[in-house]
Structure formats: structure tokens, C-alpha cells
Amino acid sequence: MLNNRQETMRQAAAFFTGEIDRLITKPVRLMEVCGTHTVAIFRAGIRQLLPPQVELVSGPGCPVCVTPNDYLDTAVAYSRLPDVIITTFGDMLRVPGSASSLAAEKAAGSDIRIVYSPLESLDIAAAHPEKKIIFLAVGFETTAPLAAATVLEAERRGLANFYVLSAHKLVPPALSALLADREVRVDGFLLPGNVSAMIGEQPYCFLAEKYHLPGVIAGFDPLDILQSVYMLARQIHASTAIVENQYRRIVRHEGNPAARQVLTQVYETVDAAWRGMGVIPASGLGVNDRYRRFNALAALPLQVEKASEQAACRCGEVLRGIIKPADCLLFGKACVPEHPVGSCMVSVEGTCAAWYKYGAGKWQV
Amino acid sequence: MCLAVPAKVIDIIDLLATVEVGGITRQISLMLLPDVTIGDFVLVHAGFAIQKVDQEEARRTTELLKELAGYAE
Ligand code: SF4
Ligand code: SF4
């Protein structure tokens, strides 16, 4: 027998799906921008719960997926230097660069260490004064303030051998670039809860003001997501377009001021290359001049060959929601999670990986 | 990569907090969330507290769900 809580949740889910069905009368495409949402949607079977006129598409929501080859090639080149220790989140290891990956370099003897927190890099730096420690600083606004705080902490501890190689990216400029792309068709956004915990609600207002598109900042429980789709459905039905916040238990209107402050203290916005999406103006963060000595690229310059991308991989279109992973000829054949060809198959939050794990496996007949 | 989990703050020394998640304790940094007190719930991402969990809002959500369950009958 279901306990009380489960029964309440089941009934609430029934309410949301019933209302979504009632409110949405013509086909709509809603995009979730966040890889954690993508995984939660698959894991809870939310696509199957929604009425057929509502299509959920995944956007450029996983920082690992959108990191281009030339960044990985640079990281690989650094890892080959004898006096360098690379620290990184585990997800980055298997992402293929032009000719190698960090996993391959590690197997070949490079000192590459997986950290849970960027702060662990500082203990490694303190323990190895003769080495240069380079943290691979990837991630959106959720993660970038952590790396910035780590730089400030390195300064406080007087560590002279700690550097970051920044590939941090910003979500709102990516949404702008998506919407400027004529191939992309979206009727509303499920906005990333954790990014929003840092930046707050305001940075998304252009969605409503410039594009007349509704957006809902969404939490990560199945009911959070269903409720958020319902909130979008209500707006679409009423032809309104505002930014709503479903995840109020975490996301404050103003975000996290301390996090925003360390970001502006350590970083400056730069143009950044996104895998499959090209260079998007002011969509990345680079270490600013004041903290230049922590910037790997500035402090430890090196030559890297021009990157080449895998021709057949269609990550770029997957990341823009233009094709589904199964439309890529490599999907599930040459490209599987055990040996990914493109980055979308690498991270567990990647769209192709999620489709492979939950989609193709279950729906293939 | 950006996974964040809620945890309960059980001790604070300067900008270091001891938090408990599912019976396991670990140390996290409060550099990005200095105004935390013991007993607060915080969202933890890669070794940092990034936001307080608003218990009042969480309670309201639970109540809303109960209410909706009534509608769905
Ligand atoms: S299936 Fe593999 S190669 Fe194709 S788009 Fe996805 S990650 Fe890229
Ligand atoms: S939480 Fe942030 S970094 Fe993680 S998948 Fe979502 S948007 Fe990307």
C-alpha cells in the first residue's frame, strides 16, 4: 500500500498532468536547459506522463558537453608537462579532444587528479610546492563562484603554484544565442534551478521582454518539474510571458549575493566558444587582470595545435534541440557511453547519454 | 556536474561548517554563504554551501501538494 506521502504526490502529479492536458491545445516545445533536469526527466519518466502535444527538448545544459575540443587539447597539453598536476571534476576525464583525452593521458602517466571540490586543489598545491597545480575550471554560474572562491582562498594562503584554466560559461547569453538561431523553435523554458540559486531571477527577464517567451525556474524533484511545466502551460494558455520561480525554497529573487560578488571580483566576461554553437559574445568568464597570476593561460603560456572536431558527431544540433540524439548516425553504434565519440555521450547529464540510458534502451522495439 | 544536495549544518568554525547528509558528516566551506547558523539546511555543491533551504517555503510546498491532491480526487 502507498503511504500517505506517496499517495499525496501521486494525486498532485495527476492534478498537474490533467491541467497541462487541458491548458495546452496545440503542440508546444518546452526546453529544459539544465543537464540535471534532463536526467531527472528521464529517470522519473516525465515525458511519458505528459500529454502528446507537449514535447520536452534538452538544451545546452551540461557544462561538460558544451566545452569545445580546443579547451580539452589545451588541458591535455598542460597535463603532458612534467611539473604540472591537473585537478578536475571526474566528468572531464573521458571527454574526447581532437586526438586524446585526459583519461588517456592519465593512463600514459600524466598526474591528473579528480577532485570533489576545487578547494582540494589547494591542499595538493600546498603539498607539492615544486609542482604547478592547474584546476580545470568548467561549469556554469553554479560552479564558477566556487572556482573564484578557490582563487581567493589560494591568495589568502599565499599559494604561488595554483592556476585555473577557465572554460566557465554563462547561461543567459547562451539562451539569447539559441533564440537568435532561426532553426531553433521553443515555446518556453524550464530554467536551471542551481544556476538560478546563484544569479537569481532577473537575468532571465529578457526572455519575456525581448522574445515574449515564458520561463519557469524549476527544482529537480519529479513534482517540481511537473509543477513547472504546469506553470508554463498556464502562461502559454493565457498568452503571458514572465519569469516565474517554482523553486522558491532555494532560489531567492536576488540569487546569492556573495557568489555574485566573488565572480565579479575574480572574473571578467569574455567571448566564449561553445561546442556546436560557435563563439557566443560575452558568454564566458576569464580570470581578470587583477588575478592574472592565477590564470594558467597567462601565467604558463603554451602552444597548442589547432583543434579538429569529429565530423560525424552532431552534438551541436543536439545541444540546440534541433535534432534528437537518435537522429545522429553514430548514436548507439559507434557512440555509446563506454566509448563516446561526442561530449553529449560522456557526462551522465549529457543528452545523448540520457537518451541512451533511459530512452533507446526502453523504447526500442 | 552541478549536482547539489541539501545538508544540515551541525557545527561552524569560522567559514568551515560540518554538515550531515544521510548520516554522513563532511566539512564544507561557507565562503559563499557566510550567514548560516547551526541547524540551518543548506544546499551543498562541490564542497561549498551555495544557498539556504527556506524551510518555510518547503513547508508551503508540502501544503500546496496536499491541497492539489484534494483537487485531483
Ligand atoms: S550520439 Fe555521439 S556522436 Fe552523435 S551527437 Fe550524440 S555524442 Fe555526438
Ligand atoms: S545544474 Fe547547472 S551545471 Fe548542472 S546541469 Fe544544470 S545548468 Fe548545468
Automatic annotation (TrEMBL), chain A:
GO biological process, any: protein maturation
Domain of life of the source: Bacteria
One Pfam family per UniProt: HypD
Protein name: Hydrogenase isoenzymes formation protein HypD
UniProt family annotation: Belongs to the HypD family.
Keyword Translocase belongs to the record: no
Keyword Iron: yes
Signal peptide interval: none
PANTHER family (UniProt xref): HYDROGENASE MATURATION FACTOR HYPD, HYDROGENASE PROTEIN ASSEMBLY PROTEIN HYPD
MF-aspect GO terms: 4 iron, 4 sulfur cluster binding; carbon monoxide binding; iron ion binding
Automatic annotation (TrEMBL), chain B:
Pfam families listed in its UniProt record: HupF_HypC
A GO biological process held by the record: protein maturation
GO molecular-function term, one example from the UniProt record: carbon dioxide binding
Similarity comment text for this entry: Belongs to the HupF/HypC family.
Protein name: Hydrogenase assembly chaperone hypC/hupF
Annotated source species: Acetonema longum DSM 6540
